[in-house]
Each structure stands twice: as structure tokens, then as C-alpha cells.
């Protein structure tokens, strides 16, 4: 294609992105910014012979378009449709299922070594954003990449100055300084003239400052920074100037060793509503009107919003409260806090590990840190939580957003591992609110804890204002008791947002004559002792949670019942231990059998199995086959729960 044709193609791609992503939702801003660099990479390199990697992968839509997946965009991020990230099952051009940031350079280092060892002459090209580059893994990788200069490895730094919000920290300042370089040169020049012409200061000071110039330049120039690491650096290049960027890539390719090509791009490029979107230049959108860029559906009150409001109130009451985000100020609900209390909200970049240990340091220094993070990204900071926070009994509050099934972002973004990993941290306490009222309450309870770590977890989407309790016993809320004339057949333990589902299931069961008590444990780690006592009064315990089954709440409760020598049978409904395909949250939950109808159906089956014929009921006709995982732990043939004799 000629340069004119390429410019037309870029414009067509942008129009296509706006048209499709406005209908499905997805990562619009990042993809509008990488049109030219993606085309250039595919023109200069030979994918899939050459390995092309996108860090995080949310900016791989254009790559998908030019590798034969144009038709898939009608169902982007929907069940059975294109993934929102590179996907190995979709194309041989996708090498990794990226989506957790800052991994591409490590993959690239490994691939380049593998190609070298197997004698293959294949280039590796990794595109990494300025945001992703704030993650520690990138620097571990750069250190190793620079250690072997014989491998053809091209790192494209896609520098748009933003993660969601402007990228922060020393590295970001380094990159930003480049754009200001003419000003920097002029400042140096004028400083030089002023000093030379000032008789009192005179030549010695000028000489000293001149000697320091190299130091100043080091501090301001990313070129020096990368070259000091031993990496060849080309740039900065205008990442929207296709010809210039291709020329830089050709040079990088010819160089033959590890090289950084620094592309300056504009996130949201070419679509005014994105370019003018102050908060995050449409990093990730829902369905919008493509003309105005406005959301077509009114947003219901959500969990993040409730947290956002309450933490601002808590911040007013306690000056020691300091919040932390790993580059997700808006999405985790901390933007208002940061605005209200400047200096008391730390955006540390995509650096969850650092965030956790910095939180420990803040707590040691007398502050009350509140680290708000998506549940799936907590995985990154597990060791820091275990060793730096928990071992030192530091009162860090962790606020886990997007817990449980999130759906459309696919396997990596479901927050289904948090209870499993938090459950093994000594001294850890975890609350799971069921509604907005308990979220506010449990957040305050967490912030009040001063002798160790605690977490509060909630999911994606709308929140109910209040699901009232009949009574609180210890920390446990009783939401429903068996109707008059019904026995204490089933203790249905609903974790967090599943309270509503459990109440509906209980009503279905009551209609069949099964007596159900529904409780919300509120604090799920450790398992409340009151809950164990309640279990002893019932004939069957069923737990239902929006969390991974292995090591989840049902798992832990089962162990607690065993420890108490209780023989009451327990069945747990939770997310099975497998990676879940992308689809809407409700579709995924339905596929897992985590709906009120399915829960009622399973409990009906179990009551027949465990409670004998007196409780046997017909299975509701309309219920589909359930697939949620349940355990067989504590399955006893006894028709009554009983205290096991002490031995
Ligand atoms: C470990 C991890 N933490 C947080 C995120 C959430 N996240 C996704 S994209 C993004 C910003 C990425 O910025 P950058 O790499 O500069 O890419 P851009 O969107 O600007 O192109 C963040 C924080 C993530 N994907 N992985
Ligand atoms: C790429 C990434 O990790 C985030 O952008 C994520 O897709 C955001 O998800 P939410 O839309 O749930 O905030
Ligand atoms: Mg960026």
C-alpha cells in the first residue's frame, strides 16, 4: 500500500472500531491509539513467524482485525465471540493470553532465548504501554534482556502518557521529559548564558554546573536511562506517522539485538468523545452512542460507587486514612478521595506488589492504609500480603473490587481466587457484604481493625441498597427463618451478593415444605463460631458463594464443622476450579448453576438424599441441569445431624 492508502486504511480502522466497540463495549481508547503502530509491525515483521506480543493485550483489536478476525467484532467479549484479549484458540498470531499487565517482556525474553537455542532466526516484537512499564516485572525482564545482546528482540514502548489516568512516577516523568525536550534544551542554554554573564558567580560555578549537565540529562532523558541499561534505543518517534515509525522499526529489525523503539501516541486518537474524555480517554467503555460517546443505559448504583462515597466520609473522620491504588484510581472508586484529600491517596502505578508492602510501611508509620484493588490483581501481591503485612500483623485494609464472576473480560479477570488465597493467611479477616448497607458497615469495621490485616470483597455491577436481617447473632445475620410448621431442615449460608438468590431459593423450597434458615455470615474468614453452632441445629448445611470452591467459604466451613466434631452434612455451591470462558456475568453464573432456581433444585435433591422420605420433594420442572460444583465432604448417611462422640 502507498502511504496515502495506508492513511485511508487507518481512518477506516478507526471508524470500524468506533462502530463495533460502541455496540459491544470494550477497550476503545487504547485501540484507537495503536492503529499505525500495529499496521507498521505487521508490515515490517512476519507474524506468526516473528512473534508479536501485546502487553496486557487490551490494545490488540487492530492486530485481530489484520489477522483475519474482522467478522468477529460483532460479538466482541460476548459468549462464543471474540475475546477482548489475544487468545491462542482464536489465532496462530496470538501467542499468549495476556491481560494481567507487565508480562510481555518476560515472555519475549523467554521466546527469544528459545529461538536462539533452537537455532531459529525469528524476531520477537513486544508492544508495552507506558503504564505497563511501571510494573516491576518489566524491569526484571529488561535487566535480563540486556544481559544477552545476541537475540533479535524489539520492544515497542507505546507511550501515550496514560494508564487509565496519567501515568505516574519517575519513569513517567522520564518519558514525559522527552516531549518537553526543546524546552529543556532552551532552559539549559539560557541557564548557561545567564551564568557566563554573571560576574559574581563566574566561571567556576559554570564549569561545575556544566559538568553536572550530563547528570541532569541522565535524570531527564529516557534515552540515557535505557542506554545505561545496555539497551539500544531509537526514538522518540511519532507513533501516528506511519512512515517514520516503519522506518524506525526497519532500523530496529536490522540492528539484530535487543532494541527499544519509543513511540509517542495519543490514546483515543481520532474520535473526539474519546480524545476529550478527561477521566480516562475511554479506556474501557460499555455500550455508547457512537455520535455523542455517551452511555446509552443509565448506570444503576454499584458496589464501587458505594465504596467511593463511604471512604470519603471515613477520610473526613480519620486523618490517618491513606488510600492506595495500582493505577486504577477511577475504576476502584478512589478518584473522589484523591480529589478531596490531596496527598492521602497514592497511585503507585501498575505495581500491586509494591502497593502491598508500601501499605505495610504506611501502617508501621502510624497510618491506616486502605488498598483498593481488583480481586484478580491481588494474586500479584500474595507474598507481600503474607510476609510483609500479615507476618508483621500490620492493620492494612484491602478492598477487593470485581470479586467473583466478572464475565466479559474472560478467564483472567474473574475474581475467583481471593478467598482461597486469603483463607491461608494467618490472622486474616475477610468480610463479604450482601448489600450497600453492609458494605458501608463492614468497610468501617475493617478500617477499625488495628491488630492485623483485613479485606472486604464485593463484585462487579449493581448493588441492592438493603436486604434486611431479622437478627444478628455474633457477626452472623439471620435473613430468614423456617415458616411456622416447618422444621430446621436446611441452613442455607449465603455469602455476600448471593443473599438475594438464597432468599429466592429458600422461598421455592418453602413452597415444597422444606424449612430453610438463611444466614449471611458477614465475616467469612475466619468461619464464625456462631455459624458452627447454627449448623448443629440443622439437618443439612448448604453454602453458596460467588468464589472459587477450592479453598472457598464452603470448603472452610466444612473443615470448621469437622473440627467441631459435627456430622451435619454440608454441600457447597461455588465456582469450579477451572478457567471460565468470557460471557456476561449472568450467563456464566447460569452455566455454573448458580441461580436461585438451580440452588433450589439442588437443595431439593439433597434434602431427599439426606433427610429421608419425610422431606422428599419433587424437583421443580423448569429447572435446567445444574453444573455448579458441590462437594461430597461431610456426606453422612445419617438422617439427622448429630454431635460425633468425642474419642
Ligand atoms: C497486573 C495488572 N494490574 C492492573 C491492570 C488493569 N489495567 C489494565 S490496562 C491498564 C493501564 C495500562 O496502561 P498502558 O500499559 O499504558 O496501556 P494503554 O491503555 O495506555 O495503552 C491497567 C492499570 C492489569 N491489567 N494488570
Ligand atoms: C485491561 C484491564 O484489565 C481493565 O481495563 C479491565 O478490562 C477493566 O475492567 P472493568 O471494565 O470491569 O473495570
Ligand atoms: Mg499508556
TrEMBL record:
Cofactor note: Binds 1 Mg(2+) ion per subunit. Binds 1 thiamine pyrophosphate per subunit.
Segments for region (Disordered): 610-647
Organism: Crossiella cryophila
Entry protein name: 1-deoxy-D-xylulose-5-phosphate synthase
MF (Gene Ontology): 1-deoxy-D-xylulose-5-phosphate synthase activity; magnesium ion binding; thiamine pyrophosphate binding
UniProt cross-references to HAMAP family, sorted A to Z: DXP_synth (MF_00315)
The gene coding this protein: dxs
Keywords: Isoprene biosynthesis, Magnesium, Metal-binding, Thiamine biosynthesis, Thiamine pyrophosphate, Transferase
Gene Ontology biological-process entries: isopentenyl diphosphate biosynthetic process, methylerythritol 4-phosphate pathway; terpenoid biosynthetic process; thiamine biosynthetic process
Enzyme class: transferase
Gene3D superfamilies xref list: 3.40.50.920, 3.40.50.970
GO cellular component, one term: cytosol
Enzyme Commission code(s) on record: 2.2.1.7
Complex formation: Homodimer.
Domain Transketolase-like pyrimidine-binding: 301-466
Catalytic activity: D-glyceraldehyde 3-phosphate + pyruvate + H(+) = 1-deoxy-D-xylulose 5-phosphate + CO2
